[in-house]
């Protein structure tokens, strides 16, 4: 009976959209079927990246705008940098897929509605200014060296880096975001991280089952019951941490000073704003903390894996990174300082070039809140537009070698596109990632420590991807380390 209702809804929606659609339409990506559109491509993990990659290339070759049909719902795909920037500075509300995570991060900076986002982003921005980020450098060194020590037990062996990098990412994120003691840190490393891992799978399972996109069906599903249980687990872990920190701050007469050069985790700043300015509820604080973890969890893990893959394959690149590190550290065996990281110019070029070729979030979706004219087409209010970061990074403005790994292009301004929307690995328009500089510092620090101690070896010829919550390498991504002498 539920299936019959679903089919009838599809037919009615199809007729209504055909009657409503009178404007000139962008080209439809090949492979759509009657009624279901491209939906059949999104039901298996292995197929999803194939259709999304093909969509990016098709759109690039057809004017920078195309349509994917989810059933009879049109999703407008953009690879033109000008159209993308125009659309995303107008459309600030995220598409409905993002709201699958509302139980966990409803008012977080990634998923919140535009009005809430504007207020909260302004309040949280100081926590991610460069002066405060510089205070995290000691913790970044500690966690990076911890990972380097862990890798010492794998020398000469082929390693899947997902588990060690997930641990590293969870450790550095929870330390800088929550500022946990050893006991609470252990709890986060185990139960909190495990809950996030399982929730990521559930969100993705829902995304691949179109009928579960509808709240009516989802609320009656076993998947919803599993999600509720895990969300409650996360809440039960974070709530006591927040309450304990609030009490500690009151007992120690916490003073918020933006010029303070002491380590201040993000949680302290959120609690200060909540208690002194009534800016956040405890639920909103939890949602922001969960958002910071989600934003770093898979994206940083995958980014670091791919950077290590690239430098493991391109030996000349790896040696240039090593030589740059030695020069910056004056050949001394010491930690990186806040003044060292900006000097790692070539390493930053390698990181950016890797993220250009393989953005961990290759698509970003928004809801079109009003009719928008983009060139000769009009995106109707209520529809969805999605920017292909993967496509923009292969736009002709990058030159004929756009699909090649060339870090040196970042060292010569004449080789870079003269467009503010050319590199969008950290987002597009006003809602770009608040943690952009934080992520760059984390990646520079850990890659710097690894390359300073080990030779990295990889084989890009077998690298394969599938699209889950992020673009995940699934084959050919094992890495081998040998000790530098």
TrEMBL record:
Q: What is its main location?
A: endoplasmic reticulum
Assigned keywords, A-Z: Endoplasmic reticulum, Heme, Iron, Membrane, Metal-binding, Microsome, Monooxygenase, Oxidoreductase, Signal
Q: Per the entry, which co-factors are needed?
A: heme
Localization: Endoplasmic reticulum membrane; Microsome membrane
UniProt signal peptide: 1-21
The answer to keyword GTP-binding applying to this record is no
* One Pfam family per UniProt: p450
- Entry binding sites for heme: 433
Give the protein's function. Answer: May be involved in the metabolism of insect hormones and in the breakdown of synthetic insecticides.
| Highest taxon above the source species | Eukaryota
Write down the species: Spodoptera littoralis (Egyptian cotton leafworm)
Q: What GO terms are given for molecular function?
A: heme binding; iron ion binding; monooxygenase activity; oxidoreductase activity, acting on paired donors, with incorporation or reduction of molecular oxygen
Name under which the protein is recorded: Cytochrome
Family annotation (InterPro entries): Cyt_P450 (IPR001128), Cyt_P450_CS (IPR017972), Cyt_P450_E_grp-IV (IPR002403), Cyt_P450_sf (IPR036396), Cytochrome_P450_Monoox (IPR050196)
UniProt record similarity statement: Belongs to the cytochrome P450 family.
Please tell me whether the keyword Acetylation is annotated for this protein: no
Membrane topology term: Peripheral membrane protein
- Its GO CC terms? endoplasmic reticulum membrane
Which Gene3D superfamilies has this protein been placed in?
Cytochrome P450
């Amino acid at each position: 009976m539920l299936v019959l209702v679903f089919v009838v809804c599809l037919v009615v929606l199809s007729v209504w959209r055909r009657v409503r659609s009178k404007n000139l339409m962008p080209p439809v990506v090949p492979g759509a079927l009657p009624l279901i559109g491209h939906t059949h491509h999104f039901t298996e993990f292995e197929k999803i990246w194939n259709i999304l990659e093909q969509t990016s290339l098709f759109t690039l070759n057809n004017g920078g705008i195309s349509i994917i049909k989810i059933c009879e719902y049109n999703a407008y795909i953009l690879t033109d940098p000008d159209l993308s920037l125009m659309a995303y500075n107008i459309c600030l509300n995220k598409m409905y897929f993002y709201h699958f995570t509302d139980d966990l991060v409803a008012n977080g900076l990634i998923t919140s509605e535009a009005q809430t986002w504007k207020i909260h982003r302004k309040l949280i921005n100081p926590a991610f200014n460069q002066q405060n980020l510089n205070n995290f450098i000691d913790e970044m060194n500690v966690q990076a060296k911890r990972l380097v020590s862990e890798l010492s037990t794998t020398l000469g062996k082929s390693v899947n880096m997902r588990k060690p990098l997930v641990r590293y990412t969870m450790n550095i994120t929870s330390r800088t975001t929550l500022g946990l003691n050893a006991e609470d840190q252990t709890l986060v490393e185990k139960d909190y991280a495990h809950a996030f891992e399982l929730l990521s799978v559930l969100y993705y399972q829902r995304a691949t089952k179109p009928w579960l996109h509808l709240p009516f069906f989802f609320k009656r599903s076993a998947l919803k019951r599993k999600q509720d249980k895990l969300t409650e687990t996360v809440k039960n872990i974070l709530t006591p941490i927040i309450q304990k920190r609030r009490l500690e701050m009151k007992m120690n007469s916490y003073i918020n000073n933006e010029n303070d050069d002491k380590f201040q985790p993000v949680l302290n700043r959120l609690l200060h704003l909540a208690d002194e300015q009534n800016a956040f509820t405890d639920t909103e604080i939890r949602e922001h903390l969960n958002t910071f973890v989600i934003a770093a969890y898979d994206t940083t893990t995958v980014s670091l894996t791919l950077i290590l893959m690239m430098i493991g394959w391109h030996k000349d690149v790896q040696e240039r990174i090593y030589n740059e590190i030695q020069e910056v550290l004056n050949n001394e065996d010491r930690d990186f300082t806040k003044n060292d990281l900006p000097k790692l110019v070539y390493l930053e070029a390698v990181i950016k070039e890797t993220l250009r070729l393989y953005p961990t979030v290759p698509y970003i979706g928004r809801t079109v809140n009003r009719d928008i004219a983009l060139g000769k087409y009009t995106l109707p209010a209520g529809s969805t537009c999605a920017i292909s970061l993967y496509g923009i990074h292969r736009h002709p403005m990058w030159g004929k070698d756009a699909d090649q790994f060339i870090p040196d292009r970042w060292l010569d301004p004449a080789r870079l596109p003269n467009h503010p929307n050319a590199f969008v690995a950290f987002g597009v328009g006003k809602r770009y990632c608040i943690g952009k500089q934080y992520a760059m510092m984390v990646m520079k620090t850990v890659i710097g420590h690894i390359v300073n101690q080990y030779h990295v070896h990889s084989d890009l010829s077998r690298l394969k991807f599938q699209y889950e919550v992020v673009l995940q390498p699934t084959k050919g991504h094992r890495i081998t380390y040998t000790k530098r002498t």
